[in-house]
Design a protein that fits this description.
single chain; binds dTDP-4-keto-6-deoxyglucose; mainly beta; five-stranded antiparallel beta sheet
Length: about 140
């Protein structure tokens, strides 16, 4: 498990009629104030999305249908792939994490709960800017 990335197992409610999962802001299921929800679906086969990090945004990713892989890179040589393939699995990404989304199944629907409204200024889209910020943070934390 990478620092800044956490798998979350959601509590499933349900009965003989089926299953139900509740994601509420500031709960154990989602520990931040949710300002935005978006979802990614009908992805072109073989495509890789993401390829960025965020300065501030916290997000919970849930593949509510099908499957996909989230590749998380901390910019210090630590890279981990997380497969999401069931609606009771969340991936909480906080802090500086370069993330790619890939290996989408045809039926994949990736739901994202976000802690901030959309703001392009929060994106780090160049990998070298990302590693520079990671190094600056590490130096700041040492002093
Ligand atoms: C992330 C991953 C997991 C908006 O106008 N508003 C929005 O809220 C979002 C999310 C996107 N857009 C526009 C910006 C682009 O012109 O939609 C277009 C596609 O966005 P993007 O290329 O950033 O999509 P992904 O799949 O690479 O990344 C998205 C989120 O943008 C990002 O925050 O962490 O999903």
């Amino acid at each position: 498990m990478l620092q800044n990335v956490q798998r979350v197992q959601f509590k499933t409610l349900g009965d003989e009629r089926g299953k139900l999962i509740v994601l509420e802001e500031l709960s154990a299921q989602c520990p931040f104030d949710v300002k935005r929800v978006f979802y990614i679906f009908d992805t072109t086969p073989g495509t890789v999305r993401g390829k960025h990090a965020h300065h501030q945004m916290r997000q919970m990713l849930v593949c509510i249908s099908g499957s996909c892989t989230i590749r998380c890179d901390l910019g210090n040589g630590k890279v981990t792939d997380y497969e999401l393939n069931w609606p009771d699995q969340g991936l909480l990404i906080e802090g500086l994490v370069w993330h790619d989304m890939l290996d989408f199944s045809k039926d994949a629907v990736l739901l994202v709960l976000a802690s901030e409204h959309y703001n392009e200024a929060d994106y780090i889209r160049k990998y070298e800017d990302f590693t520079r910020e990671v190094q600056e943070n590490a130096q700041r934390n040492q002093t």
